[in-house]
Design a protein that fits this description.
single chain, mainly alpha
């Protein structure tokens, strides 16, 4: 794989981290900030797994196992989101 793709992915990771830091200092509602930060974190985790851990080149069976693990996380994140409004009052 071309090395330029790694530099592009790295730039995306740095840019999204800078966006998260900027977002924390914004005046948006805590639920909105948490939602955006968790979405960015998921995107960053997927990019790291696909490109830097070379999951993109692995067999589909291994990718399916990772996908199932990610789907298992969704209910846990939903429960966490339901608790956010109670922690900021």
């Amino acid at each position: 794989m071309d090395n330029r793709i790694y530099l592009v992915i790295f730039a995306i990771l740095v840019g999204s981290t800078a966006g998260e830091v900027t977002l924390i200092r914004s005046s948006l509602a805590p639920v909105v900030i948490s939602t955006i930060i968790l979405a960015l974190a998921g995107m960053k985790a997927a990019l790291v797994a696909l490109f830097f851990q070379h999951l993109k080149a692995e067999p589909k069976a291994l990718s399916s196992i990772v996908l199932l693990a990610l789907l298992a996380i969704v209910p846990l994140l939903t429960i966490s989101f339901l608790q956010i409004p109670h922690t900021f009052h």
